[in-house]
Amino acid sequence: MIKNYRKWFLARVKRAIYDFGMIENGDRVVVAFSGGKDSVTLLYALKLISRFLPVKFELETIFVKTGWPMDVQVLEEFCRSINVPFHIVETEIAKIVFEERDGGSPCAICSHLRRGALHTKALELGCNKVALGHHLDDVIETFFLSMIYTGQMKVFSPSTFLDRTGLTMIRPLVYLAAEEVMSFLQSEKLPFIANPCPVNGHTHREVVKEFLLDLVQRFPDFKARFLNSLQTFDQENLWPEVRPRGRRK
Ligand SMILES: Nc1ncnc2c1ncn2[C@@H]1O[C@H](COP(=O)(O)OP(=O)(O)OP(=O)(O)O)[C@@H](O)[C@H]1O
Fold it and tell me: Where in this chain does the entry annotate a coiled-coil region (predicted)?
């Protein structure tokens, strides 16, 4: 393990914040807080960084309760211990997705409804940035999910401004792989709760996760190389756009 892991980890988070201009003076940043490994790590890393980053920003958290039974006391206590306000939004997302859904993917509908609840509460709290716990593995998986299942080459951006709400989504963990996030969580002894959703672990994403695991076993530097490819992407090295052909007369 790297000698001063905390320092190394926070430097990677700071680098992403700086490279993509994620946080500015006076920002009110709300961490989308599922209580899982990634968002717990994100919250703690942002809290530590807020002490020595030259820009001053405020932190809040929002936990969207989807309706599955969960004990969130440990999350509340954790937020209290680091002095960050914890907000819960009660929803009936689980019921809507599993009892009232009329077609469509449960994950897509859940994610859409969660986002709606999260953004509404963020605006109510007067926040302008929403921080999400996506890391480098999520970037890579999303890229392959999109390519394999929809035939499109695309990936989410580290920072996205949403016209409709005026909120900016930021992902400060994009330079860190899942195992690096896990090491930070363990070395800092942070608490987390398991995702209670019954389809968790049984989605297309799991197929891509396995594929990524195989790739990393064969090519240990794969994740770093993927990140480098995204950062040095050159349109010239890809095909030009082919316009759809008009109908033949
Ligand atoms: N119920 C929720 N309430 C608030 N934010 C959420 C919730 N679920 C997910 N998020 C946010 O969306 C991000 C991506 O969600 P996803 O469902 O992919 O979780 P994940 O990759 O398992 O992350 P985590 O370990 O933080 O749960 C999370 O890191 C978190 O920031």
Answer: none
The response to whether residue 86 sits with its C-beta less than 6 Å from ligand 1 reads no
Ligand 1 contacts CB of residue 41 (under 6 A): no
Residue among 30, 37, 38, 179 whose CB has most ligand 1 atoms within 8 A, to mutate: 38
Domain covering 5-234 in this structure, CATH number = 3.40.50.620
Is residue 241 over pLDDT 90?
no
Report the chain's mean pLDDT, rounded to a whole number.
Answer: 93
ipTM over 0.85: yes
| Domain ranges within the chain, ordered by starting residue | 5-234
The rounded distance, in Å, linking the Cα atoms of 210 and 214 is 6
Considering the entire predicted model, what is its pTM? 0.93
Q: Does 30 have pLDDT greater than 60?
A: yes
More confident call, 121 vs 236: 121
Question: Per-residue confidence at 71, pLDDT binned at 50, 70, 90?
Answer: confident
Span from the CA of 193 to the centroid of ligand 1 (angstroms): 11
Nearest-angstrom CA–CA distance, 15 and 49: 11
Ligand 1 midpoint to CA 89 (Å): 14
